Structure formats: C-alpha cells, structure tokens
Model the fold of this input.
Amino acid sequence: MSNIIHLNRTTGDVTLGQLTANGLLALDGDKVVSSVGTPTDGNVIVGDGSTWVAESGATARTSLGLGTTDSPQFTAVGVGIPVPLAKLDVVGTSRFGDSATNYTGISATGDVSFAGSAGFYPRVLDQTDEPAAGTGATQCDTGEAVIWTDTDDSKCYLCYNHGGTVKTVELG
Done:
C-alpha cells in the first residue's frame, strides 16, 4: 500500500491508501475499513468474512449474534461482571425506578433502601391453612415474610420462615 491520504474538500470524503476519495472514510490495507458507503442511521459496520460491510435490522442482529427479532432473548446479563452468575448479575450499587426521587436501591453490600414512593410489600396469602415451610405458591420460603389471611375466620397474621420453621404472629 502506498502512503496516500486523499481529501476531497467538496464532498468531505477522506481516503487513505487510494488515489481518489470514493467514500466518507475509505481505508485500504490489512484489517482496515474500505468504503462502507453512505452513513445511514441504524447501520453497524461488521466483517462478512472478506470485507467490511454496513448492516442494519435483522441482518445486523444476526451478525452480532442477537437473532433476527426486534426483542432478542439473553440467557444472562452481567453489569460489572464478565461472566454473570444469575439471569441478572449486577456488581456494585443498583437503582430501580426513576433513579432520582422514587427508587429501590441495592448497595454493593446487599442493603436494600426505598426512596420516595417506592415501598416494600410482602406477599399476601388468602387461604384456610397456615402457610407451611416451602417454596410453593401457598408456602413460606426460608427467610421470607408473608401476610396470611385465614379465610375461615378472616384473622390476619404475619408469618416468617426462620430456618425452615414458620413462625406466626396474629396482627390485631
């Protein structure tokens, strides 16, 4: 490749390694872009195995490994972690809500805070039997607090599963 820089002052095209400017930025040589055409909103530049090309829509999503639909599905998402250990794995402080006045925050130490109109609402069970320890829809999981309304007598209870034993306190 010769050492040529060409600028077309009329069109604004810049070319490196070519005698004429034939693209907005056209480069020749090993592993460099060679004219991908007119810049278009929504395009990405990808390699097709032999050259660089501009792609958009389903073609670009396929090239990037995101499938062809407008709503790609991910098995896991990591923020601040290269290999997520859960569906959503965030390392560091997180906020969910408007992030300014109404949000739930989770600190890097795991502390949960509520700001503004954000609140904590335990699960409510309306059923005849006291919730047993377990993970089912009518049970109370370890470390979970639930509000249980006994449908037989309409009394309301706070239930907490402490290490596999559900403790129940009647609410007045």
